[in-house]
Specification:
14% strand, three-stranded mixed beta sheet, ten-stranded mixed beta sheet
Length: 517
């Protein structure tokens, strides 16, 4: 499947979004743990019920920092609960992928979700199909409020759930023992999935038709949740946009303890033993921890020591991809049995490597001017070396033969020394390594010859008129994350005609997948 809208003569239905208005009455939902009051949001002729900032777990503060989420069984002292505004996102690590203008927009008390429900009749008597969005951001940045679910809910006639999960040190610090198992951000996601299964029928949703979807780190998360057998029966389809658990930067086998020890030492905590260290870190103000990580992450000498990503915890991630492949030679692990029981739609953007190339600025200076062939070859080989270390770790060494193979594969031999061709081909190399190959590997692992129709792969091609941050201006096609705006209707009233047509089609595709596959 190729998703593209830039065709000569394409005519699109022009639908301009009017200013958001609120009607006088408010929607409410009664749950076993209290009543929630939201708000109506109306476009031209479609009204959506929005319930914002619903707690799904207790605030992960104090002794609950660096612990699995504790499911929320009450809605606070106020009744009914006011679900008319967004709560803070989780503390952001590194350079924000999206703007956090107000300091109070971040808080450690951040485990909240949002529900966007149509007011129109569902497509089936059991209720609306449900789509749970997991935001991306390299497990360091982002939040549930970044992608507004109103457009997809209203145009697709599905319920959309967005949410926050813990990021960076707060979401993934691990000592690999009973003191701090790690993967708290992934457990937050699992907690949301369980919450939806339990409560979504009260919002008019059908708990037997739930799709988990996400982009980049959200796509990695969606596939990881699809391997976690404790999710069995809680969702039924996955849409992984530009990522999978096989992505090279995941490195779940990497020892997470050095990052924890470094962060503790930099924060003024003793590292004599894990219990003392964790006790000190739990008492350190969250802003202090966030700022320490961000300060050292800005320094190239320390940046690679501060990786807080998913890791092996022998529960939500039970083994490395290599161990999984080895195990499959003898038997199909229960994780793969569950994975294959779900419908998978996965895909990549045509120039997904553009984000990494521009963001890291690796080799950009090598491609600014024309150079002599020998000098150009030397510089590009140096760039390939930097690229491989960026993808697979600085500690690894790579044979010259490997770099020569990459050089030959990703060179336009009709114009081998042309800078535009060179940089575009290296974007393709980055995209293939980071997104395309892991996506295809995951699709192959998922597919079964005797169960047709459960594995689908797409490619998203066009460059939009509103490009993601860090997109090189010369990038000829879709960068990583460039498809998101078409699904969520972002900037819809500013899109060109072909873009509105493509957006309408993608909303229909994604919502139809959730409804019927």
């Amino acid at each position: 499947m190729f998703l593209s809208g830039r065709h000569t003569g394409t005519t699109g239905l022009v639908i301009l979004l009017t200013c958001v208005v609120h009607v006088s009455s408010q929607p409410s939902v009664s749950l076993m743990n209290g009543t929630i009051v939201g708000k109506f949001v109306t476009y031209e002729s479609t009204t959506v019920k929005a319930f914002l900032g619903i707690p799904f777990a207790k605030p992960p503060v104090g002794g609950l920092r660096f612990s699995k989420p504790v499911a929320e069984h009450h809605l606070g002292s106020k009744s009914p609960y006011d679900a008319t505004y967004n709560r803070p996102c989780c503390p952001q690590m590194g350079v924000p992928a999206w703007s956090v203008d107000d300091e109070m927009a971040q808080d450690e008390d951040c485990l909240y979700l949002n529900v966007f429900a149509p007011t129109s009749a569902p497509d089936e008597n059991e209720g609306h199909a449900v789509m749970i969005w997991i935001h991306g951001g390299a497990f360091k940045t982002g939040g549930g409020a970044h992608n507004n679910g109103e457009h997809l809910a209203s145009r697709g006639n599905v319920i959309v759930v967005t949410f926050n999960y813990r990021l960076g040190i707060f979401g993934f610090l691990s000592t690999m023992d009973q003191h701090a198992h790690g993967n708290y951000g992934l457990y937050d996601q699992h907690c949301v999935i369980a919450w939806v299964h339990k409560y979504i029928s009260a919002f008019g949703g059908d708990p037997s038709r739930v799709t988990v979807f996400g982009e980049s780190a959200g796509a990695v998360s969606a596939t990881l949740q699809g391997l976690y057998v404790k999710n069995y029966g809680h969702f039924h389809k996955m849409i992984a946009q530009g990522g999978s658990f096989l992505a090279p930067h995941m490195k779940v086998e990497r020892d997470p303890k050095p990052a924890a020890m470094f962060a503790a030492s930099a924060s003024g905590c003793s590292t004599e033993d894990h219990w003392t260290m964790l006790d000190c870190l739990r008492q350190t103000p969250w802003r202090r921890l966030r700022d320490v990580i961000n300060e050292y992450s800005d320094n190239p000498a320390y940046r690679n020591m501060l990786h807080f990503h998913p890791t092996i915890d022998f529960d939500i991630i039970s083994m490395t991809p290599k161990q999984m492949m080895d195990k499959m030679k003898m038997m199909v692990p229960e994780e793969i049995v569950f994975f294959r029981s779900l419908t998978l739609i996965t895909g990549v953007n045509a120039f997904a490597g553009g984000a990494s190339m521009n963001k890291s600025k690796i080799g950009m200076d090598m491609m600014q001017t024309e150079v002599e062939p020998m000098a150009e070859h030397r510089k590009r080989m140096e760039y390939i070396k930097h690229m491989l270390k960026h993808l697979y770790g600085k500690a690894q060494s790579f044979p010259n033969a490997t770099m020569e193979l990459i050089y030959h594969e990703y060179t336009n031999w009709s114009h081998p020394h042309h800078k535009e061709h060179a940089r575009t081909h290296f974007v393709k190399a980055l995209g293939d390594a980071e997104c395309v190959v892991p996506t295809i590997m995951a699709a192959r692992l998922h597919s079964q010859d005797n169960v047709p129709g459960k594995t689908h792969v797409y490619q998203f091609e066009p460059a939009s008129s509103h490009r993601p941050e860090h997109t090189p201006e010369w990038l000829p096609g879709a960068n990583r994350g460039e498809e998101i705006q078409f699904i969520f209707g972002e900037n819809y009233d500013k899109l060109q005609t072909w873009e509105k047509t493509l957006s309408d089609h993608m909303v229909k595709y994604w919502s139809n997948i959730a409804k019927s596959g």
